[in-house]
Amino acid sequence: MSLAIYNFLTGQKEPFKGVTEGQVSRFVCGPTVYDYSHLGHAKTYVSFDVIVRWLRYSGYNLRYVQNITDVGHLLDDGEDRILKGARRERVEPMQIVEKYMREYFTDMDALGVARPDISPRASAHVPEQIEMIQTLIEGGHAYVVNGSVYFSVESFSEYGKLSGRKVEDMEAGKRVAVRDEKRHPQDFALWINAPEAHILQWPSPWGRGYPGWHIECSAMAAKYLGETFDIHGGGVDNIFPHNECEIAQSESAHGKPFANYWMLGGTLLIDGVKMSKSLGNFVTIKDALERHRPEALRMFILSGLYRSPADFSEGALEAASKGSDRLNTAARRVREALKNPPDLGPDATPEMTNNLIETLDQMRMRFASAMNDDFNAPLALSVLFDLGTEANRWIDKGIASREALEQADNIFRELGGDVLGVIRAVEVASGGSAAREAGLVQMLIELRAQARASRDFARADAIRNQLAALGVTLEDGAKGTGFRVS
RNA sequence: GGCCACGUAGCCAAGUGGUAAGGCAAGGGUCUGCAAAACCCUCAUUCGUCGGUUCAAUUCCGACCGUGGCCUCCA
User: How many Å apart are A46 CA and B13 C1'?
Assistant: First the structure.
């Protein structure tokens, strides 16, 4: 069962074939670090995180590069985003960069997103960018005007091939006044001449200035992944102009394909419309994490395809959160059954165990074929839900043999935990306070048991309700009362 | 206006040329002192509308309606 990827470049699902057998080189456009990360970032990076985890789980040797944009990404009014942040907070631009880059990683860590292997910063790769621009000028793909350098879209016949746009179709100047110094309205800046007062600037062969937004990705991808690499990822909202420009620059400079597979994640909507600051429906990851567990957010994101848009709403999050609880409860029950094996009934024969093992093997295969089919996480997730239902049933029916439980536990840990990151790892109840807490709860459970034995249900319920208020849920079972902490 | 997606039960959301995964919600039942958790049962003859191709379409084609995205701010 081999891996197939939907390639935006061709508009088709294609079997994956890496530049180098057994390896995957991947670049994903990273954030511009001038403000807190939002749910759109969460969707994109959780989606690509699961792809990383699946590729690694499948045995590929993956190198994952994700840039940090800290210069050159301009706002409508031409101001650099970093400078805007610096002005807002009255600090040095690089303080803004450090602050929000750290916040970005903190948020991603909280969401369980594995860090990229390399997180190169644009401002740290100015020489590489200058070198690439030089190459483009020499090759006749770029020209210098008044200390700025522009890429000539007419020099690259395939410009528009990713986004399906034709230069002729696009009437320039619709939204933003065209700078007259460009030869063609679609030409884009590689290097921007800096006024003397501009805080971010570097010396270059064309005078002092700063790099344009697109060139950083091309230069850094080439440096760390080579001139042609396997997968380029990002959000669809960057398909034009950003991704298109990356292709134009890289392929013009190197004369060979840039990325073989383009994977673009769908946009995150809030109650049906795109999230934006101006609409006031902007939700940061920190805000969301105050209200929901990380697994619930991941569950929400993974319950749709990575390349489809996702519509965030409190209702949708609530449903995902409940689903996440169900899965985690089932996984925990399997773990507990392994620690305290349940009584087996007369149906727990070796043949029965073989049947269960076969069912579990099939689940692994179903999961793998879902993930290998362009990373169909929602379908893979449904396999885990099936496993939850089955495992619960096996335990209830007294047929859950040790072998079956071990296999089920493995699937939950490996596929639910390591790959999708929706099942929490085993809570390590080590340390003095955790042990003390468990002891205290156990004491209350015994007090309640005494109350129940003497049919003092008011007292028993009071204990249970007060524990519930503290986030400790009691569960009465055949073999006594257990508890879980939320 | 141009380009591109999408439209599946109350909600979220997979999927296939041969008759619809999963989650949430809802209803009934088992268990329980009552809960919680869990299990069992029920819940789209139907996949935006109208045509077409086909033995057969939700799945292919066309038109229309609707929603969303992009068109040099955004992951």
Answer: 18
